[in-house]
Amino acid sequence: MDSRLVNLVVDAADPAGLARWWREALGWRAGYADDHESDVVPPEGEPGLDLVFVPVRDPKLVPNRIHLDLDSSSPAEQRETVAFLLDLGATRADVGQGEVPWVVLADPEGNEFCVLDPRPEYEGTGAIAAVVHQARDPWAMAGFWGPVSGWRTARSGAGVVALRDGSTGPFLEFVASPTPHTVKNRWHLDVRATRSGRGRERVITEALAAGARPADVGQGAGVPWTVLADPEGNEFCVLSGPVD
């Protein structure tokens, strides 16, 4: 499929404020901003997906199906990162994780994320080790999202399949979860057609043939993107224009 994963989009009550928080949390840069979105982008030379914060009035009702895992290079760095984020306004979160070597936090709007213990497989990812996506069937979801994202399977194991764009940057991990999609996701993925491909309509046609379906999240007519849902109901957008 001639498309590429380009953004991770975050619904926010205060997009500008939450973007500023994540910019400080990650050490990233401010990107494009207007009344409809505030972007946070990696530092020059660091791999990663842009984070796009958009205004949504609906409150957060359930734990997010997509969250970020932040990298640590040592136990000391993990402790320092957790302390820094708590001082910045994060809170500790309980998602039923029990006794684990990673730390679960939530940002000021309640979005869960993890600060990982040091793991060699995440060397070279940048600040974000992985975009983690809950899935009832991780292998089927990776089979769908591999072609849609343009990323390839990097590893798989018990209950997890990870995609990656080459040998650097974050992973897109599908992790087994029995919890079904019940409400609109507050975090979703955006893709664009590649310049060498046959355009957005072709991407949409192929995604539908692969198991996607049209989705209505109140976007209305005339917007420059098309909203679809993957085979497990998770919304994503196919943006207009090719990848830069």
TrEMBL record:
<dbReference type="InterPro" id="IPR029068">
    <property type="entry name" value="Glyas_Bleomycin-R_OHBP_Dase"/>
</dbReference>
<protein>
    <recommendedName>
        <fullName>Glyoxalase-like domain-containing protein</fullName>
    </recommendedName>
</protein>
<dbReference type="Pfam" id="PF18029">
    <property type="entry name" value="Glyoxalase_6"/>
</dbReference>
<feature type="domain" description="Glyoxalase-like">
    <location>
        <begin position="8"/>
        <end position="116"/>
    </location>
</feature>
<feature type="domain" description="Glyoxalase-like">
    <location>
        <begin position="131"/>
        <end position="239"/>
    </location>
</feature>
<dbReference type="InterPro" id="IPR041581">
    <property type="entry name" value="Glyoxalase_6"/>
</dbReference>
